[in-house]
Amino acid sequence: MSIISMLMGILLPSLNRARQQAKSILCLSNLRQMTTAAEIYTTSNDSFYPIAYFSKRISNIRSDYAWDFTHFTDWSTTPAKKTVQPGYLWSGPTNLEIQQCPCFEGEDNWLDDPFTGYNYNTSYLGRNETKMDPQTYFVPSAKNLEVTHPAKTAIFGDAMIIGGGANKCMRAPLSNPRDAGFSDPGRIAGAQGYIHLGKTNVAFCDGHAQSWQKLYTNSSAGSQLETYNKTTKQKIGFISEDNSLYDLK
Fold it and tell me: Is residue 80 part of a domain?
């Protein structure tokens, strides 16, 4: 019995690590498929990347558009009727479970989303709702031709916020003209979750995805935001200490 107990003590950590590694591989596959979908989107939309998010309301219908899911709320009924559809990233039928990181445990900050765990480079690619033209409801996302080094520009990654959920909007660590109004807490909410054995998975504009170990917690105000998820104790941070792996240069 003592020998069996000793062997179990040796094997169980190895088995758990193997399971986590398998989930990380599946996560990387999801991210690559999402990047492929984004590239397909650009070919059909004059080279523009998908819009990150924006909202509008016409009469009793509120529409909340986002890159992953679009929500429609009909306030003419009691209770209000809610519908969730594929977002801008998907130009046709797809397996939306691709948008669920197998290692993520928690809810999206848009709580009606059926799947969650990833965020999209909103600071530079999808951009912000504040850029919306009030007449056309058009958010000018970036074009793929604007990305100088696609292999060094993050597009999707693991999301995690301090409280336990996932913010679908990836933020660069330092202030920039497109989201200069965000405070440090707002930026850290758009950071990455290091949930894969201490690493985070990141997809880049050239289509490749990889596990990333380097973690930075500096912010636009110069403070060090050493932080982690309150429930899982997993680290949260940025993949570069400046905006170099987020911007279009």
Answer: no
Q: Is residue 119 part of a domain?
A: yes
* Domain membership of residue 103 as a residue range: 2-53+93-237
Bridge partners of 235, per DSSP, are 228
Q: pTM of the predicted model, to two decimals? A: 0.88
Share above pLDDT 90 across residues of the chain, in percent, rounded to a whole number: 49
Distance between CA 201 and CA 196 in Å, rounded?
8
Please return the burial class of 97, using the count of CB atoms within 10 Å of its CB with bins 0-12, 13-18 and 19+. Answer: exposed
Mean of the per-residue pLDDT values for the chain?
Answer: 85
pLDDT digits (tens, 9 = 90+) for 182-241: 777 778 889 999 999 999 999 999 999 999 999 998 766 555 556 777 777 788 999 999
Q: What is the DSSP string of 173-214?
A: SS--TTSTT--HHHHHHTSEE--BTTBEEEEETTS-EEEE--
Cβ count near 133 (within 10 Å): 10
Q: How many domains does the structure of the chain reveal?
A: 1
Does residue 64 sit within a domain?
no
Residue 134 belongs to a domain: yes
Model confidence at 67: pLDDT above 70: yes
Whose tokens are 């850029």? That residue is 131
The rounded distance, in Å, linking the Cα atoms of 87 and 69 is 4
Spatial distance between the Cα atoms of 52 and 93, rounded to a whole number of angstroms: 20
